Amino acid sequence: MVWALCTSGQAITKAGVNANSTITASGQALSNWSDETESAICSVANKNVVSNFSGLTANGKEIMAQLASDIIGQQIINYDMSGYTSRHEATMMLNVLENRISKNKAIIKESDNKAYLGLT
Q1: Domain extents in the chain
Q2: How far apart are alpha carbons 105 and 1 in whole angstroms?
Q3: Which of 13, 55, 112, 117 has the fewest Cβ atoms nearer than 10 Å?
Q4: How far is CA 105 from the centre of its chain?
Q5: What does DSSP assign to residue 46?
Q6: Structure pTM?
Q7: What gap in Å lies between CA 59 and CA 20, rounded to an integer?
Q8: How far apart, in Å, are the Cα atoms of 119 and each of 44, 68, 78, 109?
């Protein structure tokens, strides 16, 4: 399940330019976070969206990509906040990502959206 829902570049971009360069270059850590995130998203969707990715609608794919990259972006920021100009900057970035994560999880869980996203 490596990088089925988003790319590492998408996730790294979400962490911003001040993200720790050691972790953003660590393929293994990023891959592990990707696997964990994809499993969590499958649980939220109550469907294996990784193996059924081709069955998602274009909008469904974009929402899954945004959700996955936001979650992994949070992990990157949380790994080491010392590179950010302040702890407040890192916290604000985490809050923005968390807001989108919450909204996208709600969209995925809403039964009226299942067909629209290709989750039926």
Answers
A1: 19-117
A2: 20
A3: 112
A4: 11
A5: T
A6: 0.95
A7: 31
A8: 11, 16, 31, 10
pLDDT in tens, the chain (120 residues): 579 999 999 999 999 999 999 999 999 999 999 999 999 999 999 999 999 999 999 999 999 999 999 999 999 999 999 999 999 999 999 999 999 999 999 999 999 999 999 998
DSSP state of 113: G
Tokens of 56: 């998602």
Give the ranges where the chain is alpha helix by DSSP (H): 8-15, 21-24, 27-45, 58-79, 87-109, 114-117
Please name the amino acid found at residue 25.
A
Q: What are the tokens at 22? A: 């050691």
14 and 70 Cβ atoms separated by less than 8 Å: yes
